[in-house]
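During the second half of the funding period, the structural biology subgroup turned its attention to how the target accommodates small molecules. The most pressing case was 3-methyl-2-oxobutanoic acid, which had performed well in the primary screen but for which no bound structure existed. We therefore specified the complex as follows and requested a full 3D prediction, including the ligand pose.
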Amino acid sequence: MSSQSPTPARRVTVHELRRMKDAGEPIAVVTCYDATAARWVDAAGVDVVLVGDSLGMVVQGHDSTLPVTIDQMVYHCAAVKRGLARGSGRPHLVGDMPFGSYQASADEAVRAAARLVAEGGAEAVKLEGGAEYVDVVRRIVRAGVPVMGHLGLTPQSVHRMGGYVVQGKDSEKAAQILKDARALEAAGCYAVVLECVPAELARIVTSQLHVPTIGIGAGIHCDGQVLVLNDLLGMDASFKPRFVKHFASLGEAATAGVAAYVAEVRSRRFPDDAHAFHSPGVRLLPAPDDDDAGEEPKGGGVTGAPV
Ligand code: KIV
């Protein structure tokens, strides 16, 4: 048997992602929001972990991503970072810029991006929008923070789009998305998410950009794919838009697990002896009579937390 320790995993950086595109190696991206999930996705070998503002819908239960704040994004990023710190150290961590954190000015955008990096531990940030955000992208990149773009269905613009609908279906809109993608690349984006656009359009954008495209509902031709962890694990069996594939049925497994627990509590089968603590040598003091009420407990009683 070899006494050598295993070769450390190669850290995924913006340069590594570019190399993967050039080498034709598909990039696996997953969105997650907490430390436990971060450890799962790292152990599964994902290349990039995105702490998406989709947490507004998935974790917080809102019907859009619009209420998510920069404080909440920083909080979740830091949790994911701590989870990843206990793993391979390989995945690249991206923090999403929430609605309102970058639209008003480039200065505010730089401040928000800096918080995701400094407090949240992100190695890059993602923001939604095209050519209208090139100045913001340039300023964040100039501050030293890599920026991932996001085109097509951009959930923060749900009201302008009139709903969560596929984008770029006619020639004019498709041409605009291609133009936006080129503008983002020229401004310094190191990757671009393409959400819910026709596969034909995603193929053209992917072939024309030097930086990787990451698709969600954008077909097979993108350089990488991203899905929300809760969606790909089937945590909500009823949520299954066309672009989501359930690779597991965790929602059903979770309900079955909790139902088994409830049944065992109600039938007094849980906790059994194997899940209880024992102290065979302990002798309980007699209960204090009324005259002693209010006195500090004396040594020998079981008063502390079990160990
Ligand atoms: O917020 C998010 O999770 C995202 C991905 C789905 C791309 O933006």
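Two results from this model are relevant to the next phase. Confidence is low (pLDDT under 50) at residues 293-305. The first helix runs from residue 14 to 23.
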